[in-house]
Specification:
Elements: E1 7-16, E2 22-25, E3 32-35, H1 43-49, E4 57-62, E5 76-80, E6 95-100, E7 103-112, E8 116-120, E9 130-142
Antiparallel strand pairs: 1-2, 1-3, 1-9, 4-9, 5-8, 6-7, 7-8
Length: 146
């Protein structure tokens, strides 16, 4: 029986970048569990599982637009240093949680300048095509979607 929208699925996966770097994997962990059609994972990952049978595997390259989207320049901002506590240590690569109009936003420090701190609030995988190796472990109870 193929996986369809509304199914609770459990999958093992490995995600790699174009250069072969593994960015995420369920190896050594419980399978990832989510409901198809609820938007709980990126669209391309979800569509790769639609129609799969339990025990089957697929390797799918998911383009940027079906993954975390393109890099958005407006998500890279310079915040004046005086907006940070004077005793707060700031380092390149450090992640900060910011309160935005739509809730909490995670941003990474990408530049330390004389007058400000450059923050990038894009998802770390934005702008990347992602390749996933996916094995469908099980299909659970069907849920009714709103």
């Amino acid at each position: 029986m193929p996986a369809i929208e509304g199914d609770l699925v459990r999958v093992h996966y490995q995600g790699t970048l174009a250069d072969g770097t593994v960015f995420d994997s369920s190896e050594g962990r419980e399978p990832l569990e989510f409901t198809l059609g609820k938007g709980m994972v990126i669209p391309g990952f979800e569509s790769a599982i639609m129609g799969m049978e339990v025990g089957s595997s697929v390797v799918r390259t998911i383009p940027v637009d079906e993954a975390y989207g393109p890099i958005r320049e407006e998500m890279v901002i310079n915040i004046p240093k005086d907006q940070f506590p004077a005793d707060m240590p700031l380092e390149l690569g450090q992640e900060l949680q910011l309160q935005g109009p739509d809730g909490v936003l995670v941003a990474q420090i990408v530049g330390l300048e004389e007058d400000g701190i450059m923050l990038d609030a894009n998802h770390p995988l934005a702008g990347e095509d992602l390749t996933f190796s996916i094995t469908l472990e099980s299909i659970g109870s069907k849920l009714i979607l709103p």
